[in-house]
Structure prediction request, 320 residues.
Amino acid sequence: MLIKKPADLKYSDITPKSIYVDRRKFLAGAAGVGAAMLGGRVVLDVISPRTTALAGTKLSGYSKSPLSTNEPRTPYNDVTQYNNFYEFGSDKDDPAVNAKNFRTSPWTVSVEGNVTKPQKFDMDAILKMAPLEERIYRLRCVEAWSIVVPWIGFPLSALLQKVEPTPKAKFVAFETFYDPKQMPKARGTGIEFPYREGLRLDEAMHPLTLVCVGMYGETLPPQDGAPVRLIVPWKYGFKSIKSIVKITLVEKQPRTTWNMAAPNEYGFYSNVNPKVDHPRWSQAKERRLGEFLKRPTLPFNGYADQVENLYSGMDLRKYF
Ligand code: MTE
Prediction:
């Protein structure tokens, strides 16, 4: 049978769920694009055009990380229908609707700046960069809601080591893809695009910092940041930048989107801190999506044991 082993699979060969779940519609429209029925099974080889979001494709061969929480996962529907992705609109239900046809293939991530080996990685290279792990992490949004998600990815340190940061590299700046044609709703949200984020180099190299390519066993849906995003679980959710195309190792603290938009409300560090309120609301509690009652928010979102040493001696009220 013509079924490719995961190791042979190219990211660009992966079939969107919207195609394989509706076999009949697919077969009707698939004449001449490499589909065949073998023993009652649809075999998909190369589908063309392969440009729309490749969400919902099974990922395999990943291990389960011991760094996972054993708290119950947030239902998939909540995580994919209640989003912040301002490129696709500012209401929580906008991204699921407006990112549907977001073209995420082909895709490259350029890694540059103060590095010995600047490189452009395509998604095949990114998927092969390091063993994939499932990490069940909490993510706590600055707006006081939170989710628990089985993310799939690998430590950002593996990617950064590939390009060999020079001693001048002190911070890492990230940038999201921006195309006003595909993202007409971005205008009017009041923030500047492309969306930018940043970490100190030691935060970026921390083993918890994840380059994320999937969730719930599948590639990322467009509204959750396909095809590749960051997850920094001890920081407010806006640090976990989506749909990354550029990573630059820099000397100085980079400018970041929400800090530029409202510097008194959103700091560069943005570590989850129940003791430092947002100027307009409390950060002491959060509502987990799918639950009714609020729960107390934990310092560093519950990851204090692993990360608080990164900030020893720092006044976290000043560096919020
Ligand atoms: N990345 C980009 N490019 N644009 C955004 O608007 N929103 C951030 C972050 N990453 C955002 C982004 C915010 S505020 C949050 S809370 C998380 O994404 C939400 O991730 P989720 O929608 O997968 O839950």
